Amino acid sequence: MNNAKRVEIVREALENHNFLGVRGLPHPDNNKKYRKNQLLTKSYAHYDEGDIPLSGTSAIGITDYDDDDDIVRKIERAQKEYSEAGRVILIAGNDYLDGEDIDEMLIRNEVGFEYRGARYICDL
After folding, report:
1. How far apart are the C-alpha atoms of 45 and 32, rounded to whole Å?
2. Where would you tag: which of 22, 35, 55, 106 has the fewest CB atoms within 10 A of its CB?
3. Are 110 and 80 a contacting pair, CB within 8 Å?
4. pLDDT digits (tens, 9 = 90+) for 85-114
5. Is 48 exposed, middle or buried (0-12, 13-18, 19+ CB in 10 A)?
6. Residue 73: domain span
7. What digits encode the pLDDT tens for the residues 35-47?
8. CA neighbor of 108 nearest in space, from 36, 47, 20, 23
9. Structural domain tally of the chain?
10. What is the per-residue pLDDT for 28?
11. What gap in Å lies between CA 117 and CA 103, rounded to an integer?
């Protein structure tokens, strides 16, 4: 898929979702098959003391303020910095929290009385 098509997909998703992000998949998740709108698991922060569950699915946030070049840079960054195999997915949610890393959002969805992870939109 070329960058123009990726940007087109992201722009369309921005019209239909409150919060959007790109997520580079780590090795254990690289071969998973996701269904559109499938709820993803929450991410974990990895510290020397152990893993701590976060309040949503970690991603590089994309907003209406990002121009096409910003979107491409964020996709490429997710691919290079967060995915051992180069797979990047587009995720969405109805809420988010700021993460600890640059541009990081913890995207989540309210389901009943609790927050779950982000929803899978598509592969980029």
Report:
1. 21
2. 35
3. no
4. 899 999 999 999 999 888 999 999 988 888
5. exposed
6. 3-123
7. 999 999 899 888 8
8. 20
9. 1
10. 79
11. 18
